[in-house]
Design a protein that fits this description.
Blueprint (H helix, E strand, L loop, with lengths): L1 H44 L1 E6 L2 E6 L7 H17 L5 H12 L4 H12 L2 H7 L3 E12 L5 E12 L3 E15 L10 E18 L1
Helix pairs in contact: 2-3
Length: about 200
Amino acid sequence: MFKQLKNIDTAFQYIRGFTALVVACSAVLSGFAVYKSFKLVSVMQNKIYILANGKALEAYASDRKDNIEVEVRDHVKTFHQLFFTLDPDEKVIQSGITKALYLADASAKRTYDNLKEKGFYATVISANISQQLTIDSIRIDVSCYPYRFQCYALQRITRPTSIVSRSLITAGYLRNVSRSDNNPHGFLIERWETIENRDLKTESR
C-alpha cells in the first residue's frame, strides 16, 4: 500500500512539473507573439502608401532630424523664389510676396515695405519688367540652433530694351515653428538680410 502511495506521489510530482513546464512555455510563446505584434505594428505605422498615376508607391516615415538639411534648403529656396520672382502684374506680385512672408519674420516684411515705399514694385509694373531668380547654392550650419544660412543666387531682370544679370547673396537664421499649409516645412526665417546685390552684366535686346 505504501508503495502504491509512493507511486501516486511520484506521478503527481511529474504531472506538476510537466504542467509548470507547459505554463512557462505558453507564457514565453505568448510574450514573444505580443512582442512581434507590437514590432510589426510599429513598422507598418512608419510606412506610407502614395497613390500616383494609378500606382501605389511605398514610402517610409523618418525623423525630422534625418532630413533637416534638405528641408532647410527647400524652405530657403522657396522663400527666395517667391520673394524675388516678379512679373509686371500687381496680383502676381502680391500673391508671391504674401506666400513668401508666411515663411519669414518681420525682417522680410521690412524689406518688402522699403521696396514698396521706394516705388520698386510700381516701376516693375509700369516699365513691364520681369525678374527671375536662380539659386546657385545654399550653405547651412545645423550644428547650432537657430540654423544659420547663406543663399547665393542669380537675378535675371528682363526690361524692354535689356537683360541685366545681378549677383544676390542673402543670409539669415531659421527656427522651428508649427507646420501648416502656408508653411509646410515648419521653419521661420529670422534676421534676414541682403549681403550683396550687384550687377554682373547687361545685354541689349
